[in-house]
Amino acid sequence: MSNCGSCPSKGECNKDQQSCGIQNNPLNNIKKIIGVMSGKGGVGKSTVSALIARNLAKQGYKVGVLDADITGPSIPRLLGVKDAKAMGAPNNCIYPVQSADGIKVMSLNLLLEDENQPVIWRGAMISNTVKQFYTDVIWGELDYLLIDMPPGTGDVALTVMQSIPINGIVMVSVPQDMVSMIVAKAVNMVKKLDIEIIGLVENMSYIVCPDCGKKIQIFNGNDTSKLLDDLQLNLLGTLPMNAGLGNVSVGVYKDGDEEVEGLFNPIVINLLNSLKEIEAKKTQA
Ligand SMILES: Nc1ncnc2c1ncn2[C@@H]1O[C@H](COP(=O)(O)OP(=O)(O)OP(=O)(O)O)[C@@H](O)[C@H]1O
């Protein structure tokens, strides 16, 4: 039976407690869980997850990032903890690693001797590991736990959405026809599972000419507005394609980087407002 007392969805869900498959660790008190998803690979989910986490942490929130991309984990590099190792805790639990900006991080790479070792596991094992990253990691007190989802709408995405009490999903897309089609699949999956979509971040929307400052659209550009209209999604913000964002994983982005902060401040404001609206709607229902 689920432990509703420590559930981030307490008071906002209409699940039957006896049949709910969600297990919450009583040592954890996580207020909100946000999934970052796309369906399509390589569109910037991990970069967006890491930079939302850093922005929230900078505002003083207690933040964690669960890297659910077991076979292609990039969160440790993006949060500057690639050489750290997660340590065991009593009762078969695990302590997350803490980044320099105070973000708690759990990723399979933090358990491997060598980050270059592949994880050659079947789907069920990968899904169980993700579940354990929620149930067995001592996250403690968190205002926000971000879950960086793997690409696709398969096993892991399904496990995350069915066994972790997600309050909402941030979709990441790129304004290109083929990406939009695959993101639409992910959006429809989330809707089928009755999970709220907080909004969409459009990544790689444009490049800025270093000489004249003109914004140049590299893809044909109209697909996101069609996606937003067709699926009734909220646009949280757009991000350029640039070296600053591309080099987060090599530690180039430091606190106080005005360009990155200027890009993420409005996205995070929109995200928090949208999350509040979702909560208000649920408590009224
Ligand atoms: N706005 C951007 N400008 C430049 N490079 C970017 C931008 N966003 C992401 N990248 C780069 O694109 C690559 C893919 O990004 P990222 O790993 O965040 O995507 P992902 O969707 O999480 O990928 P995966 O499907 O493997 O999980 C990375 O090398 C990243 O540094």
TrEMBL record:
<keyword id="KW-0067">ATP-binding</keyword>
<dbReference type="InterPro" id="IPR044304">
    <property type="entry name" value="NUBPL-like"/>
</dbReference>
<keyword id="KW-0479">Metal-binding</keyword>
<dbReference type="InterPro" id="IPR000808">
    <property type="entry name" value="Mrp-like_CS"/>
</dbReference>
<dbReference type="InterPro" id="IPR019591">
    <property type="entry name" value="Mrp/NBP35_ATP-bd"/>
</dbReference>
<keyword id="KW-0408">Iron</keyword>
<comment type="similarity">
    <text>Belongs to the Mrp/NBP35 ATP-binding proteins family.</text>
</comment>
<comment type="subunit">
    <text>Homodimer.</text>
</comment>
<protein>
    <recommendedName>
        <fullName>Iron-sulfur cluster carrier protein</fullName>
    </recommendedName>
</protein>
<keyword id="KW-0378">Hydrolase</keyword>
<keyword id="KW-0411">Iron-sulfur</keyword>
<dbReference type="InterPro" id="IPR033756">
    <property type="entry name" value="YlxH/NBP35"/>
</dbReference>
<keyword id="KW-0547">Nucleotide-binding</keyword>
<dbReference type="Pfam" id="PF10609">
    <property type="entry name" value="ParA"/>
</dbReference>
<feature type="binding site">
    <location>
        <begin position="39"/>
        <end position="46"/>
    </location>
    <ligand>
        <name>ATP</name>
    </ligand>
</feature>
<comment type="function">
    <text>Binds and transfers iron-sulfur (Fe-S) clusters to target apoproteins. Can hydrolyze ATP.</text>
</comment>
<dbReference type="GO" id="GO:0005524">
    <property type="term" value="F:ATP binding"/>
</dbReference>
